[in-house]
Amino acid sequence: MMKKKLLIHSFPFLLLFISCTKNKNESQVAPVASDTLSTGWKKIQINDSAGFLDVFFINNTGFAAGENIFKSSDGGESWSKLASPSGLASTPLFNLSMGSTMNALFITPTQLVVTHNGGASFTTKALPDPAVTDVFFIDSIVAYAIGHSVWKTIDAGDNWIKLNDIAPSNGWNSLFFTNELTGWLLKKTGAYKTINGGIDWQRVNTDTINLDQAGAIFFLNSDTGYFSNNLSIEKTVNGGTSWNKVFACTTNTYHDIHFVSSNIGYITDGPRIFKTADGGNTWTKEVALGSISNSLIELHFTDANHGWACGAKGAILKFNQ
């Protein structure tokens, strides 16, 4: 997602960051002749030229967010545009997480957007942090957010407490928890692990990997996990003591990661989705969209048989096997 070193000190810089990071680098990818979708995948085109920056589902209920918020109650077959949160019309919402079908959190360049009724209404919450970029629910009401600091809510986003001022850095910050105590975060200063619910963090060994353009982070357990930078997917099997490149990306952009088991996982790479069935040793192309303007950004799976991806030009992909 990161193509440049960007300083995020203010709203204009963050808008520039979003524009550069969650879009394609057209000079890096040759156009594909037509959409190629492996068995189980289908493309659902939504009438929203602004496109989407994140998608998230719980069972058949999900949201897709960009400049607008859309909701699906039938597993992504159909989508309804929701009323924009007050004062945030055309403001990009570039990450989201759901604690339940009712509780969801969205991140904008300046504040969090909260719903407790499945998107029927929204409230906003400003945190005293200039660079919040990711949020992660670990159950229906407990969630963490990461920016310059680590934040926690125990009421689904209405109130937040600061846990740690960990290594402030301008740029993209990603967050992932395997349970309420054990979590990981990724930022340009490195990858970090907590075992006490975000109060303390220990930096793991990423000294030989360029994280100026950090991406996504995903862990299966305390030992095995993956993260992306702008040009590769890295894997650890020893809790971050060492990392090995398992995929060389073809696009200089943001690459999302989601595993549904220890062996089966998916990544985005520009207008393509790749799948591994052996823990990242080999990868096969599952999706190739015919236009680089349909570059895919985020993906999310609820289990091995149900997944979604989103991207530019209102493209939603659904996997149902």
TrEMBL record:
GO cellular component, one term: photosystem II
Keyword Signal: yes
Keywords: Photosynthesis, Photosystem II, Signal
Signal peptide: 1-24
InterPro entries in the record: PSII_CF48-like_dom, WD40/YVTN_repeat-like_dom_sf
Any GO BP: photosynthesis
Alphabetical list of Pfam families matching this protein: PSII_BNR (PF14870)
Superkingdom assignment: Bacteria
Boundaries of every Photosynthesis system II assembly factor Ycf48/Hcf136-like domain copy: 241-319
UniProt protein name: Photosynthesis system II assembly factor Ycf48/Hcf136-like domain-containing protein
